[in-house]
Amino acid sequence: MPNKELLFNALVGEATERTPWVPFVGVHGGALVGVDATEYLKSADHIVNALKIAAERYKPDGLPVVFDLQLEAEILGCELSWAKETPPSVASHPLDDDYDIAGLPEFDVTKGRIPLVLDAVRRAKAELGDDVALYGLLTGPLTLALHLRGDDVLLDMFDEEDEVPELYDYCAEVANKLVDAYIEAGIDVIAVVDPMISQIGPGHFTDFVAPPLNKIFDHIRSKGALSSLFVCGNATRNLEAMCATTCDNISVDENIDMEALAKVARSAGKSFGGNMQLTVALLLGDANDAKRDAVRCIDQAGEGGGLILAPGCDLPYAVKPENLEAVASLIGDDDQIKIARNLPAKDTNETFDDIIIPNYAEEDAVIVDVVTLDSLGCAPCAYMVKAAQEAAKAYGKAIEVREHKITGRDGLGYMTKLGATAIPSLCVDGKEQFASIIPDRKDLVAVYAAAASVK
Q: 110 and 35 in one domain?
């Protein structure tokens, strides 16, 4: 069966002869062609060349053309901060002061970097389209609303219940314009990537976010394409609500229990995927770690079809190509899968004795440790760091905010020693206070005040 057909069958929940494999090659494509993330995301030539290399080396059934959740925000007036190894991050919010949606620049797919992305889609379709399904990624309504409004939009769901739906509907309209452009250019699968969903509860998801999401998914279906809802972070509390939307597929990261996801998704008639460990297995591990983790996903998904094997999010820039090649080598090879199941278990008793954390009681300042994937490229991480820093401003030097990125060993060591339970997490003087949920300023200031009072 051709790769694309097999993937399409799995996306609609059918049992397939093997598990489809979709490595989310985003800025990692820059590493494949020898340029940094900034140069990569501004060049259709680099993107197409990287997709060709990824197709040859990683033997995928599907590939995203670009993984950049700032494409729409850039056109709508958000200033971007560029980085070497991650997509850009949003540095300003044009609706920070009010909900003047009419005052935003017109969203037009002929503006910004979207034309070069569409050019890359057309060229990649001509090069790879017979064998590899192309994913077009767009920013989900909640995450785009945060880009435009800032993290106040989370509080607005309590205080501004009339204005929030208007903003989310606007974000859905923006998404549907990009859907049309993607499909016209040749995209096969539309993934609506909305990492901020992990930061809200099922009530707010159902009331505010599901309606605009369904407008997007219904529009995609009307165009004859397949859709995926892609949520990073620990969205466990929202799995049932996510599966109640009209998408075809749910994709999650390593914070989600795969067995639980498989049960909820199949009962709702959805396919599902993701979950491979970005840092421990793919970035910092070796080929055997990658194989073990792939087989873990396959085994935890169990029988019944509908699994798409994929990393939990956009691949880190410096992920080891040999680890992705190792995963590709066992897909569809029962003997290799059996061998991987019998690989000796990795020693997971790393104590990080060389990573020294402060004696917080002896520090003059209150130390706020924010454990992230990387705030430069992870939206929930960026807003967690921003919330920590904004709340600390009133205290001057009495509070010190430090970020620890788990893309490196130091960050993993801090996460382990602090006992952080999710990404992102915020710890105050060594104690986890907020895990995978961005606190509102009032709650965070109260925590800071309590910690400062005992210094």
A: yes
307 and 391 both lie in a single domain = no
**What does each C-alpha distance from 292 to 64, 304, 309, 339 come to in angstroms?**
24, 21, 13, 10
Q: Which residue has tokens 């620049």?
A: 105
pLDDT tens-digit series, residues 11-28: 999 999 999 999 999 999
In a domain, 376, yes or no: yes
- For 199, other C-beta atoms within 10 Å of its C-beta total 25
Answer with the residue of higher pLDDT: 453 or 48. Answer: 48
* pLDDT given at position 155: 79
Structure tokens that stand for 17 in this block? 């002869």
What's the rounded Cα separation, in Å, for the pair 38 and 372? 21
Rounded Cα–Cα distance for residues 452 and 366 (Å): 6
Mean pLDDT of the chain: 93
Angle, CA 175 vertex, CA 25 and CA 26 arms, to 5°: 10
Instruction: Name the nearest CA neighbour of 194 among 166, 244, 233.
Output: 233
- Please report, for the domain that includes residue 412, its CATH number: 3.40.30.10
Q: 133: which strand partners?
A: 62
Residue 255 backbone phi and psi in degrees, to 5: -70, -15
What domain range is 430 assigned to?
A: 360-453
Cα gap 154→439, rounded to integer Å: 9
Q: Where is the domain boundary, 341, 376, 406?
A: 341
Pick from 379, 374, 391, 376: nearest CA to 440: 391
Last residue of a domain, one of 294, 314, 341: 341
Confidence of residue 160 (pLDDT cuts 50, 70, 90): low
CA–CA separation, 381 vs 384, rounded Å?
5
326 and 373 housed in the same domain: no
Backbone torsions φ then ψ of 365, nearest 5 degrees: -95, 160
Tally the C-alpha atoms within 13 A of residue 252's C-alpha that lie toward its C-beta: 31
Give me the number of domains the chain comprises. Answer: 2
Residue at 349 is within a domain: no
Lowest mean pLDDT among 15-19, 138-142, 421-425: 421-425
Pick from 185, 258, 189: which is nearest to 225 by CA? 189
Buried b or exposed e, range 139-177, using 16+ CB within 10 angstroms: bbbbbbbbbbbbbbbbebbeebeebbeebbebbbebbbb
pLDDT tens digits, 307-347: 999 998 899 999 999 999 999 999 989 999 999 998 887 76
Whole-model pTM over 0.85: yes
Q: What is the pLDDT of residue 347?
A: 65
